[in-house]
Write a structure and sequence with these properties.
Helices cover 44% and strands 15% of the residues. The chain is of the alpha/beta class. It has a domain of 247 residues: Rossmann fold (3-Layer(aba) Sandwich), CATH 3.40.50.1100. The strands form four sheets. The protein has a six-stranded mixed β-sheet with strand order 3-4-14-9-10-13, with helices on both faces. It has a five-stranded parallel β-sheet with strand order 8-5-6-7-15, with helices on both faces. A two-stranded antiparallel ribbon has the order 1-2. α4 runs antiparallel to α6 and α19 packs across α20. The protein starts with a strand and ends with a helix.
Length: 494
């Protein structure tokens, strides 16, 4: 059985279901598997599998205390007609790369891929562990996690969900998606700080023993829908595994041929899932980490020093506007030889000084990664260039990855087949996308731009967009970062 332990070593090993329920380990660390098993199927067998069957093959490796019936029920409930394509995650070839479209779910962003299944994994876990407390999902979002989590947990029995987002740090569409969310158990709160402030505030509440006691007295317990939760991370491994099978099935690669994967990266969860895909046996050569102007990860891969002490920049790719990449802690743990003491010391440095530096030996563990970044101008250039060459339209986050990939190829002449994680629909960032293609197209109101973009991209408006246009605003609470605990207490009646 695969068990889970904290990256910081201060807690006992737990089962997958217990790790999913807790979200964050009691010592503030992140749960990691004690071992990473290999896929029990060949790549050729994988190429003949549906998305749902691939999901079972991957999830059953990591979530070993769930029965087959439990996992298949969770998978069937998650990957149903909420997605507008039977493939769930189609691969689109454009200008020499393969764009893995992860935005065909209810909220038109990649977070749907994991947050469609997390509520089912979590409620199943509660039953398995004899939990009768109501689970309070406490989450910080830089834009996409919030809406996907809200949609996933809306009216799920035995849960409440509270989402904090930076009031002036998300796109108009992202904000509208969140503040119009229906559900008797959903709560959305804007904060006057940035995403890092929201994430730090949430982590503090998870570590607040007095607050936990107050929750327990009222029959509540915290859990998380952020990518710090292993129940978010494991389902993300699925789509990279599936992408390899699709490339093989369509004859784009030979059995066993390695591929590169480029991921637009903020909190590091999405690219970490690709790292784990390689660990379970998917043939991966390079993982290309793409950052925007907030290039703390690029600098880390270049120098071995992680330093958040820098200007925070609001960009056209807001889901990547992050200076504290929480999931990097899991990679740090692995390249430190699974040394929890060393990991804990580095994370303490991040908390106290805002920085840490890894050893030369640990840097050797980064050999499978490459990194790059794109400025705002380069991001727009990537959108425009791809559209002019192919007619294919990508969003701003995918454009960061597209630009970084092109520059990587130009510098290295590495023409390995490459999958680019396309993390959001262009409709989610319509103004920025249209302005990149032709500034004249972007002069209308945010929500009037949708029809223009549909014509330019030659696609239908996604249902998630058409529903937004008439949705009622239901959530309007805004608070200072310091007031986050008080708001939670008020919502829960503590």
């Amino acid at each position: 059985m695969v068990m889970y332990k904290s990256t910081r070593g201060g807690s006992e090993e737990v089962t997958a279901s217990a790790a999913i329920l807790q979200g964050l380990a009691p010592d503030g660390g992140l749960y990691v598997p004690t071992s990473v098993p290999k896929l029990p199927v060949s790549m050729r067998e994988l190429s003949r599998m549906s998305y749902r069957d691939t999901a079972y093959a991957v999830l059953s490796l990591f979530l070993t205390d769930y029965t087959e019936d439990e996992l298949r029920a969770c998978i069937d409930a998650a990957y149903d007609d909420k997605f507008d394509t039977e493939e769930i995650a189609p691969l689109v070839q454009a200008d020499g790369a393969y764009y893995l479209e992860l935005f065909h779910g209810a909220t038109i962003a990649f977070k749907d891929m994991a947050l469609s299944i997390l509520p089912h994994l979590m409620t199943t876990a509660a039953k398995k562990n004899g939990i009768t407390d109501k689970i309070v999902i406490l989450t910080a979002t830089s834009g996409d996690t919030g809406k996907a989590a809200l949609a996933g947990f809306a009216d799920v029995p035995g849960t409440e969900i509270i989402v904090f987002y930076p009031k002036n740090g998300v796109s108009a569409v992202q904000e509208r998606q969140m503040v119009t969310q229906k559900g008797g158990n959903v709560h959305v709160v804007g904060i006057t700080g940035n995403f890092d402030d929201a994430q730090t505030g949430v982590k503090k509440m998870f570590g607040d023993d007095a607050m936990k006691s107050a929750l327990a007295a009222k029959g509540y317990r915290f859990s998380s829908a952020n990518s710090i939760n292993i129940g978010r991370l494991v389902p993300q491994i699925v789509y990279y595994t599936y992408a390899y099978g699709k490339l093989l099935a369509e004859g784009h690669i030979q059995d066993g041929e390695k591929i590169n994967i480029t991921v637009p990266t903020g909190n590091f969860g999405n690219i970490l899932a690709a790292y784990y895909a390689g660990k379970i046996g998917v043939p991966i050569a390079k993982l290309i980490c793409a950052s925007n102007t907030n290039k703390v990860l690029f600098d880390f891969f270049e120098t071995g020093e992680y330093d958040r002490n820098r200007e925070f920049v609001l960009t056209s790719s807001p889901s990547m506007d992050i200076l504290v990449s929480s999931n990097l802690e899991r990679l740090i743990y692995h390249i430190a030889g699974n040394d929890s003491k060393k990991t804990a010391a580095l994370m303490a440095g991040l908390t106290s000084k805002g920085r840490y530096e890894i050893t030369d030996e640990m840097k050797e563990g980064l050999a499978g990664f490459s990194a790059g970044y794109a400025t705002e101008e380069e991001t727009a250039e990537a959108i425009r260039t791809l559209y002019e060459r192919t007619g294919y339209v990508i969003d701003t986050h995918t454009a960061v990855a597209s630009y970084v990939y092109r520059r990587y190829v130009n510098h290295t002449h590495d023409f390995t087949r490459t999958v680019i994680a396309s993390t959001a629909s262009p409709f989610k960032f319509a103004r920025s996308v249209l302005a990149a293609i032709d500034p004249e197209l972007a002069k209308a109101d945010d929500f009037a731009l949708f029809d223009t973009l549909a014509k330019v991209a030659n696609v239908k408006l996604p249902p998630a967009v058409t529903e937004l246009l008439s949705a009622e605003i239901r959530h309007d609470t805004v608070c200072e970062t310091a007031a986050m605990p008080a708001v939670v207490k008020q919502i829960l009646g503590l």
